[in-house]
């Protein structure tokens, strides 16, 4: 079909009322008709999202490999209990190690991205060793210490598996407040690792319950009675030959969680466990044999490591949201409910304006998170490259550091709002599937439970938003003093023109331009950051210290971070769309991006009206345009989710099948997962005695006559 | 302690900086100090919330009974699998039937309310028989049919247990669209119940998998080839002596769900199952032996039955939110994180302004839902009483019917927004507990999963909001024509004064008055309803039919319903506070109610600014006052949740213990639930071969020397 013919077909599809009559209740036909109206080359969009045809094919190959790998079987997972899930998860190590040792880092990263969608619990369990344990060695070990642990098998998993023992029962976010101690004993040249209180018990330690032989332990360094703060130590936990815990190490199982039960979180208590001095990781602070503590001249630059985790979580939020939306939107394209008065054929959920309102803005948001994640990944790689190659007296270094700080703060907000957005998307898709969304087998319930932890770990979301807000206030105060800020907060250098600015367009229609949306966000962000900064300065003026003042204006910080982050997401999306070469792909994404822009303005209407960037009349127009754009995007909704290109195996939900044949597959899966029991469960023990118990005052002669009710019942004749 | 002394103590507690020094890390002491500052008589508030001392004591007795009843054991439930949970749940029937047969209806209702907090799965399973099966008989059976089924054992559960087979695989909300057929066969005087397609399979039927002997089946009545719509039929499913399914009945298990796994949902297919004619429930439509169909003159008034379910769900939303908040707030009163620069003692979460922002408005909302639930319960009982006693020519009847319609529509919105609010509250409390919120044992994860279904069943929330919005538009149009509306929508009779009205207060401080808040809501609601009605009329003017026009403006309907419902909640709360006799209780609730009013205005700031009831400056003041009121309410937060008066057994979360002793009890529960395994799970099968596998190119001589790392590692000396 040529482009013109296709467009003609689309137009007919959109306008012909005859087409309505061809509708049928058959879900496959319902799905097929959706694809007939596709306005763009789906494959081109997939290539663009993936970063090129090569990567699309790589991912397709991987999806097929996983689907065929019995260890990665998915359709029975909802009925496995915690112990079965953990064992299944451990089995996957064998398979993944093979790939780890045989493919390039970039290829393997793609594999890991897919694993996060297939089995988030395994993703975590594997990540505990590879990202956290080995990551800690890379950040905190001296080169020779690193060599030592790598030779011992840390990378190849020969003879050892690591875990990461940071959080304690009484302390999560506050790492400097951890209670576990590492006391240096000079004569012995050893550290004594000790859990002094119940709350010092290492808690939530992934891999500790069943898997790990070694732990990176965060503990308070104490030398000659003096405390030097929290440092990292490698502490052996178990004999790798027998898996018995070593003397002084007590390990327990954290047990059942909301989700990710494939990972064996545990708790650990140390009772005066001795480790050699060199098990302290000494890249930064060093302790000599004689008990001399050498502290680093400069606080280590940890931005890099933190950034990497956050970038990964933005990407994961985008991917998980795409998976949830594939299910919610495909189901809405075949599910029908209520017939219009003039028809026997019920209406598709997706044709209801309210259902479009539920799902289309979230689809747009998934794209925004996607483009943001991609751009952040690139930016991160660039920056790290620059940092690695730069010399301290490089003239551009200041600018790189400034950009790094800005990205660091922005990424804190992005991690928070993207994980919240994704969790919200999953739940909205689940509810949009009606009752079937409550079934374990349709996938969204488990997805919610697995994903929920992302809002807490790697920095509690609320705390991260406050960090982002703090950076915004500081940037504002620097801008006031004339400092040129990094591009991401560059709008704070234009306060003079932005504060008080109103949307000056000749017509309502003229609002629908990316430059207007973008300016609106700059104006609103400048205002809310200014407002937060004024609150902060008022607190200072009233005699509060800096920390108290920041606490006091934390709601304003959160609000500033929220708007800054939404603006950032919109701008990355708009930039990303500009870069799309294919015209028709760009056209459809332009609509989606405009929907995202207007929807987020509507969601934050209070701010846009508060600072009078838009008038109430303009805002009313925007609300109406969101409805219009939902309808426009709905026309391409199925091709758009098709472009995410997840195979039915990855989707793992009958409701999200590519072919739309939802009912038969859902029914078959429920039957497969729940074969008829051999005996009626607990009938003899519980039900029969209940039904046959004698009740005071009851006749004995009302014996069952199921098929012949009394004829005196007939009062109607 | 006298009132004055207590107030003095409170003042000291609030102002004394000395008090800070008395803080200790001990969680019990942290909790105790919270109660020292109580400004009101907690017991009085409890009596008020419960509806009197007698009911408080009744509930306390019941909580104790449940706690001592081994069938209602709670602390092991998180580790029971689906099959164990179902069996445990069935066991409880025995216990609850005893109470059902021996206590008054009102007393038993209180018991059921508690059961919903203790075991929502059992609440549903029991409710399927008592509310749905028997409820259907009451609504749809003739008196002699009712007598027949009651004599057969429907109430006493002797020889039969019922289920409610309405929803099908392909149809949920659209009851008239159900596909199951009930075809009358004249000669045989029987109906043939049949499942014609896969999508007609009865689906989600609670109790069908293991429990029920009989079903109320919703099916299309067909007589002499003509369809008469969906009616109810009693269909026997199983032989109560053997529990074998009867000929033509196929039953399967729906299996694993997001939550409430104690209820055995099943699916049912009927293959030409014959039932006697009198198994059709004929209170409304009747079919004679000769195949004459007698349809009712008037459509039955089903408002009553629907209302009862919705009132119950508002009450349940309030109660479940209270339970979640007891956990979240008590934990925040003892959990400490980060020490201020001038102190060794870390700060309580509850003392962080941002944490107050997270939980205090939700606490206020729980009170709003409580007062609304109570008032609706009363109103419902009154109305039903009036309806039962009224004669058709009663002059007040019109007014009662009008009020009933209004309450019906408002209750649709309340069911939707209260269940959404409660679900949101649970998740916010869970996230506010940080990492520990992800543990199954802290209770909030399971609470979320159990509660989530409330947003879908008994009317999908989104559809209910649209019904509410439709009623508002219709009311607006009637008001324009001069009709006097029911009190709940009375503001639509004042459009002339409300549209365009602005907040006319002399000072910002004067905003803080219930009358101002209330007026603001009336103005905003009048505007958004008007706006929705204009959109609707524009659609009609453009040639749409009524149904399409309503669909087209569904976003405006939802928005109108949202604001109307929030206003309703605020007004019920404000009215409720007025009625509190105890002065100090009223004082604290006045603060809580003002927080709720301002918080909901802030949440809907776009509407208040859009219609210019508040100026941007006033809105800024309101935002700041929410912060202030969060701090005020925080001071009484622990006494306020104490007043909910749930025992530790009901709370069933170490984090929500009354005594604040969270860590030791959490630790002990995790240990109890996860005793050390006898063997290292899957070590021999999976871990050992992995650790000991030979890797290409790896030396054999890096044998383990755990305690003696190489000395060349020492690069730092």
Describe, in short, the structure shown.
With 717 residues, chain A is of the alpha+beta class.
Give an overview in words.
The structure is a homodimer of 717-residue chains. Chain A has 25 helices and 11 strands. With 717 residues, chain A is an alpha+beta fold. Chain A has 2 domains: 135-296, Butyryl-CoA Dehydrogenase, subunit A, domain 2 (Beta Barrel), CATH 2.40.110.10; 305-651, Butyryl-CoA Dehydrogenase, subunit A, domain 3 (Up-down Bundle), CATH 1.20.140. In chain A, strands 1, 2, 3, 5, 6 and 9 form a 6-stranded mixed sheet that branches. The first copy, chain A, has a 3-stranded antiparallel sheet with strand order 4-8-7, with no helix packed on it. A two-stranded antiparallel sheet of chain A has the order 10-11. The longest helix of chain A is centred in the middle third of the chain and has 37 residues, at 353-389. Chains A and B meet through α6, α9, α11, α12 and α13 of A and α6, α9, α11, α12 and α13 of B.
């Amino acid at each position: 079909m040529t482009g013109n013919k296709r467009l003609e077909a689309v137009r007919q599809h959109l306008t012909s009322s005859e087409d309505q009559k061809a509708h049928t209740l058959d879900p496959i036909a319902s799905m097929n008709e959706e694809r007939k109206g596709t306005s763009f080359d789906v494959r081109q969009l997939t290539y663009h999202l993936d970063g090129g045809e090569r990567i699309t094919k790589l991912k397709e190959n991987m999806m097929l490999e996983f689907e065929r790998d019995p260890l990665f079987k998915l359709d029975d997972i909802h009925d496995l209990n915690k112990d079965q899930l953990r064992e299944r998860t451990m089995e996957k190590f064998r398979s993944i190690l093979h790939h780890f040792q045989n493919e390039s880092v970039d290829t393997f990263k793609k594999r890991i991205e897919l694993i996060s969608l297939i089995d988030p619990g395994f993703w975590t369990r594997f990540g505990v060793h590879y990202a956290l344990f080995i990551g800690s060695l890379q950040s905190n070990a001296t080169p020779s210490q690193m060599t030592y642990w790598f030779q011992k098998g840390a990378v190849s998993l020969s003879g050892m598996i690591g875990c990461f023992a940071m959080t304690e029962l009484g302390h999560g976010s506050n790492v400097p407040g951890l209670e576990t101690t590492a006391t240096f004993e000079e004569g012995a040249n050893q550290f004594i690792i000790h859990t002094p209180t119940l709350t010092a018990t290492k808690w939530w330690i992934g891999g500790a319950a069943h898997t790990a032989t070694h732990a990176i332990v965060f503990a308070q360094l104490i030398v000659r009675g003096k405390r030097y703060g929290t440092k990292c130590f490698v502490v052996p936990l178990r004999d790798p030959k027998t898996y018995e815990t070593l003397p002084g190490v007590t390990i327990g199982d954290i047990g059942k969680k909301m989700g990710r039960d494939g990972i064996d979180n545990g708790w650990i208590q140390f009772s005066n466990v001795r480790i050699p001095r060199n098990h302290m990781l000494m890249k930064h602070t060093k302790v000599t044999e004689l008990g001399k503590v050498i502290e680093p001249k400069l606080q280590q630059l940890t931005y890099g490591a933190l950034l990497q985790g956050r970038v990964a979580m933005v990407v994961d939020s985008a991917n998980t949201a795409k998976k949830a939306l594939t299910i919610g939107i495909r189901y809405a394209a075949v599910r029908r409910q209520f017939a219009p008065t003039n028809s026997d054929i019920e209406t598709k959920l997706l044709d209801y304006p309210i259902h479009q309102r539920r799902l289309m803005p979230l689809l747009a948001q998934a794209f925004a998170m996607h483009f943001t994640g991609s751009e952040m990944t690139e930016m991160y790689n660039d920056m790290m490259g620059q940092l690695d190659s730069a010399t301290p007296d490089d003239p551009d270094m200041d600018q790189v550091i400034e950009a790094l700080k800005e990205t660091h703060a922005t990424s804190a907000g992005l991690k928070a709002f993207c994980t919240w957005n994704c969790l919200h998307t999953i739940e909205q898709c689940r509810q949009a599937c009606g009752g079937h969304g409550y079934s374990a087998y349709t996938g969204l319930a488990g997805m919610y439970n697995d994903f929920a932890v992302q809002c807490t770990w790697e920095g509690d979301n609320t705390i991260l938003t406050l960090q982002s807000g703090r950076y915004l206030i500081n940037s504002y105060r620097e801008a006031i003093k004339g400092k040129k800020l990094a591009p991401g907060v560059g709008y704070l250098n234009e306060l003079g023109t932005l504060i008080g600015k109103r949307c000056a367009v000749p017509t309502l229609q003229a609002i629908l331009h990316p430059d207007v949306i973008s300016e609106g966000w700059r104006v609103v962000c400048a205002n809310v950051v200014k407002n937060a900064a004024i609150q902060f300065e008022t607190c200072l003026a009233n005699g509060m210290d800096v920390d108290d003042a920041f606490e006091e204006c934390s709601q304003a910080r959160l609000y500033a971070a929220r708007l800054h982050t939404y603006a950032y997401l919109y701008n990355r999306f708009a930039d990303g769309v500009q870069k799309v070469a294919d015209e028709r792909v760009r056209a459809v994404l332009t609509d989606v991006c405009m929907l995202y822009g207007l929807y987020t303005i509507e969601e934050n209407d209070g701010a846009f009206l508060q600072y009078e960037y838009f008038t109430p009349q303009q805002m009313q127009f925007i609300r109406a345009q969101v409805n219009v754009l939902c309808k426009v995007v709905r026309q391409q909704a199925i091709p758009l989710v098709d472009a995410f290109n997840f195979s039915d195996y990855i989707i793992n939900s009958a409701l999200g099948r590519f072919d739309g044949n939802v009912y038969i597959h859902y029914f078959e899966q429920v039957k497969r997962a729940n074969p008829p029991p051999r005996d009626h469960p607990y009938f003899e023990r519980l039900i029969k005695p209940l039904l046959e118990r004698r009740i005071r005052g009851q006749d004995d002669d009302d014996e069952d006559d199921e098929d012949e009710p009394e004829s005196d019942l007939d009062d109607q004749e």
